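Hi F.,

I've been meaning to write this up properly since the lab meeting, where we talked about keeping a consistent format for the predictions we share between groups. The idea is simple: the sequence comes first, exactly as it goes in, then the structure tokens exactly as they come out, then a line or two of notes. No screenshots and no reformatting. I'm using this chain as the first example so we have something concrete to point to.
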Amino acid sequence: MKKNLGLASVVSLVVVVVLYFYFSKKSTPSIEENIPMNEVAEISEPLYKFGIPLDEYQMLEGKIKRNQTIADILLPFNISNQDIFSIDRLSKDVFSVRNFVPNRDYTLFYTEDSIKRAAYFVYEPSPLEYVVYQLKDSISIYKEEREVETIEKTMSGRITVSLDHSIREKGGSAALVSAVADVFGWQIDMRSLQVGDWFKVIYEERQVNGEPIGIGKVLGAEFNHIRNNYMAYAYDQGEGFDYYDDLGESLQRAFLRYPVEFSRISSRYNKNRLHPVLNTRRAHLGTDFAAAKGTPIKAAADGVIIARGYTGGNGNYVKIRHNGTYTTGYLHMSKFGNYKNGQKVKKGDIIGYVGSTGLATGNHLCFRFWKRGEQVDFLREDLPAEKPLSAEHIIKFEAMKELMDKKLNDIPMDWVEDVITASNR
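Output, unedited:
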């Protein structure tokens, strides 16, 4: 009897405990039930610009004005003259504050507690780069590059005036004009293009934040000149991209056809030319390329700079030895590039900029060409080709060519549609 009573007591206790917890849980709302949905705090990531947290600073954006200095910008934000002197000294190793260019963007980050005080100053020398001048705590300066995205783009056009006109009419840049002219430079004389010639091109466009900052390489192209088709395909055999035709033959020569951004030839090699300044008959042993002042001048081929200076006739000039056979000269520059005498250069490197220094009536490049020490007509020379396509790459090249042909065929030719539409009316 005692055992039964004990067992009943235990069962009763268990029932009481279970009922207690059941009703306690039911009557006590959860934390989630107590908080209305519209009062739940949203946790958001802090926003940054140039790697600087925007929630910690006020921000002022502007453009550099003519003759404006960093002192003009920072003194109103309580940066001392001594700190500005330190910024000037430290910036020389990264990006000197004396090299600011009018109309370039800058951003100032500052605090506004008791007084306005600059914490960071950011200058953008180009769409690709920005320089951060840290002003809080200790002064430090560093340069960063934005992420560049490469986009494959296409274009087609019909010659009505010139290659330059047709490409620009489609929204292309001078760099794209130059690139197409370089690809076909040894197959097609760009001075002899006819109205009705047409082209298609597949190329790379480099973008930062969705905005174009330049082009990469031409990947493939087709040019129809006087009803003859010329094809070009970019292919890398392991030492960089070269261009080949549809038979796998190299399109490139060891030298660029145009050492300046594509322009017109204003004067050719002539042993009995009337000099435009001296008004006397004398040999003109070069090729003149007319171009706007400041147009980049490119090294025509790999080589070593053996002269860089100024003479009364040549103005600012550079001379490059390419090998034991060929040497080139570049005259009348407005200013030099970054390469010094004795330095090696690669084909396409910028060695200077078009000008009219020395005996010159207008802005142009006088391009001189020596073969075994004798000045010759560059445009008449049968120059060596780049490396041919090796046998081991032929199958890969053919596969790439087939894909590129399909892409080229898919590029619409708007002017053909216009002609067809007009003829049906």
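Notes:
The first helix runs from residue 2 to 27.
The radius of gyration is 34 Å.

If this format works for you, I'll send the rest the same way.

G.
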